[in-house]
Amino acid sequence: AQTVTQSQPEMSVQEAETVTLSCTYDTSENNYYLFWYKQPPSRQMILVIRQEAYKQQNATENRFSVNFQKAAKSFSLKISDSQLGDTAMYFCAFMNHSPLTSGSRLTFGEGTQLTVNP
Amino acid sequence: KAGVTQTPRYLIKTRGQQVTLSCSPISGHRSVSWYQQTPGQGLQFLFEYFSETQRNKGNFPGRFSGRQFSNSRSEMNVSTLELGDSALYLCASSTGPGGREQYFGPGTRLTVT
Fold first, then answer.
1. Nearest to A95 among B50, B96, B99 (CB)
2. Pairwise CA distance, residues A118 & A79, whole Å
């Protein structure tokens, strides 16, 4: 079974600064997907970024980028130019690549509460 | 395109009762997954449906069940409610199984008293 660990329960950053959220995972699979989701106070889960394990290039979406280290099983999220609207709970999630056996099942970490201060 | 919708948004039930939650996926999406979110257990996978078939099931008791209709809408049912079933129930849809992005609905907040 896969496990996802987020070791930082809470983090804070000043507006316009950069912050990095950590995530490690454990799996015996070689092909899989990794995601970061954010959940603001509205509780709506929003997809931030997606990484395919077979791709060496780190995914980037505007101010959000990841540092994917497959050998270390590490998947950190970097948020540049932090904005007040980035305040949310951030979840790291794992999905196995095998649709026939695992479907679209997401395994989530415990979450990191990020607060952006003005 | 409309997002994932869940009804009702809030629900209060008494122990022993049963409840049915509904999820309408994004148009064109055929896969629907359900998750339970609690402060103590975090986000846990309940089950996934694709083309009206349950593809995957999490580690929950048989009191939790679901189904999917031909229009891809899904319902989940919890029978004999317990206090511990109080949670936010999230539904997510995707075009199909296997690595595709999942888009979540706003959730149904269930309180069992």
1. B99
2. 16
